[in-house]
Amino acid sequence: MTASGRSFDCDVLVVGGGIVGLSAAYALTRSAPGTQVTVLEKERGPARHQTGRNSGVIHSGIYYRPGSLKARFAVRGAAEMVKFCAEYGIDHQVMGKLIVATDRDELPRLHALVQRGRENGIPVRELGPAQIAEYEPEVHGLAAIHVGTTGVCDYGAVAAQLALASDADVRYGEEVTEIDRRPWGIAVRTASGTVVRARALVNCAGLHCDRVARLAGDDPGMRIVPFRGEYYDLVRPDLVRGLVYPVPDPAFPFLGVHLTRGIEGGVHVGPNAVPALAREGYTWSDVHPLELADTLRWPGSWRIARRHWRYGAGELHRSLSKRAFTEAVRRLLPAVTEDDLRPAPAGVRAQAVLRDGTLADDFLIREAPRTVHVLNAPSPAATASLPIGREVARRALKALAADRAHRTGARDVARSGDEAGPVAGER
After folding, report:
1. Suppose 230 and one of 145, 196, 272, 341 were both cysteines; which one would form an S-S bond, judging by CB atoms 3.0 to 4.6 Å apart?
2. Could you tell me if 146 and 125 are in contact, meaning their C-beta atoms sit under 8 angstroms apart?
């Protein structure tokens, strides 16, 4: 029982059982033993959406602005993820990757990546055409860089292990529908009617994080605009030895169609990025009218459409035309044909869009009374999940400390009032 006479089911309640939410729970129970943590996940198991539907790349951090959370957490997280996988016997491999320039206009951007990588402390080797062939005989390019710390792993298995390794109470099949935040704490109701009371709440709801923030009474200042990443599998995986990426367009937060040899030996090709018609819209037929209306009502959605319509038109064309998609792949891998590409399961990226149409580029973590909201955690969030989890845990523990100080102060005031009572009465 608390001083106010209320009971709590846990100290910290985490909403969301993807890799970021489970990393936060893991960090909370490791950094502050005895802290009671409950995780609520609406699906029947962990990592059913962004975490479990990506190409499994352990990103090096080369793309991200030096000093940004993305850069710091990705570089640190890549090393920690490899160590975590090794410790728990999770399939992983670090083989490095090539970033290949196929056009002269891309060469300045490639050289800028070299500089950025070195500023971020990442080992980078510059390659000419002959050296590209030593790594990838079937890949053609004018120049490339080799990034040695990039790898692949099974993030679904990582998330499951985080759930097991923490002391958190992880509850699946519990979708949060109501949040009541009061001065004494937070109460959450789920679709099943379960009520959980906590001293602090951590919102790691991914594709639904803005909705959860609004349920808590906070204005997140952004909306999640979902983008579907469409993949193919390469029928002839022997064409690619490792990971091959194009030089990214800095005006858009997607890396372009790339080639990824997974831990199972197959090669994923993609993703193509198109607007999804639902938060969990993995095909064109997955349409959620209310979610789509929410996206269309947000001013930022129209502003990014006006700003990036030409880029978006190309993505839509490749989504609807396998021939166009194949041509994009052939820029890196000339030997590929349409028959070499077999449709594979898609993923959805939770992209935070600000009111002015800005695509949030860095990780976005905001605090409110008794609450921590993770509002933008796209790639490389899986790579960086362990340091992100620690950062979220630090902020949640700060909220608990503030709560303890408040309750201690309230008790002191109550005691001083009790002591002063008789004196006042004598007057």
Report:
1. 272
2. yes
Are 352 and 376 within 8 A, CB to CB? yes
Coil/strand/helix, residue 61: coil
Amino acid identity at 292:
L
Residue 333's nearest CA partner among 134, 139, 143 is 139
Measured CA distances, 104 to 226, 258, 333 (Å): 33, 19, 17
Q: DSSP character for 53? A: S
Per-residue confidence band for 406, with pLDDT thresholds at 50, 70 and 90: low
41-65: pLDDT as tens digits: 999 999 999 998 988 999 999 999 9
> What token pair was written down for 194?
């379960």
Reported pTM: 0.90
Nearest to 385 by CA among 139, 178, 158: 158
**185 alpha-carbon distance from chain centroid:** 27
3-state SS of 113-164 is HHHHHHHCCCCEEEECHHHHHHHCCCCCCCEEEEECCCEEECHHHHHHHHHH
Structural domain boundaries in the chain: 1-95+152-221+362-427
CA 151 to chain centre: 17
Question: What contacts 17, CB < 8 A, 6 or more positions away?
Answer: 39, 40, 41, 43, 45, 46, 47, 159, 163, 170, 172
Q: Rounded to whole angstroms, how far apart are CA atoms 123 and 118?
A: 7
| CATH number attached to the domain at 1-95+152-221+362-427 | 3.50.50.60
DSSP classification of residue 191: T
Pairwise CA distance, residues 54 & 263, whole Å? 13
User: Could you tell me what percent of the chain has a pLDDT over 90?
Assistant: 82
Backbone angles phi, psi at 356, to 5 degrees: -85, 5
Angle of helix 322-330 relative to helix 309-320, nearest 10 degrees, comes to: 110
